[in-house]
Amino acid sequence: MKGTRPLDNDEIRRVSAAFTGTYQVRNRSLFLLGVSTGGRISELLSLRIGDVYQNEKPVTDLLFDKSIVKGGEVSRAVPVNSDGQRAIEDLIALHWEKYGTTHKSRPLFLSRNGQGTQRMSRRTAHDVLKAAFEMAGLNGHLATHSLRKSFAQRLYEQTGDVFAAQEMLGNKSIATTQKYSQLVVLGLEFIHIK
Fold first, then answer.
1. Which of 6, 24, 178, 182 is a Cys-bridge partner for 150, taking CB atoms 3.0 to 4.6 Å apart?
2. What DSSP character marks residue 58?
């Protein structure tokens, strides 16, 4: 989403602690998986249990299949850090507790409607994340795309490699990746000076 900003590490911790209520595990896990993998909200909501939980454990590399990525041309694999893996474990435990099954075709992020068969809507995702941002005392232009921008920012800070950020985000254009953070912009300017 144009104009949204990334979250820094302190803000990520504050938002993570802000989820409450009946669906706090689902909502916190959506947030953590988003900032851990950089998936678009539509990609995250399209995930099924079998995409993230294989051989009785969370995946270490998450494949966003081309059937769910924007443009539908190329799949991409993204490493899942320990926060993302814990979020997956929490979701699996929730599915066992609430529905008694972790069938691989079940949507990972379930709607509270539909008795465990329908996925959470983009609107609901937006609303629960916006509420958590407010509960954490954050302001500025924050939305679902802030998760993706936070991932890009953190990846660039760790690697200094704008092309790695482009690949992990699945952006066709380096210019698109450039828009994700000020540090990436500075990195691009440096790369083009030769």
1. 6
2. E
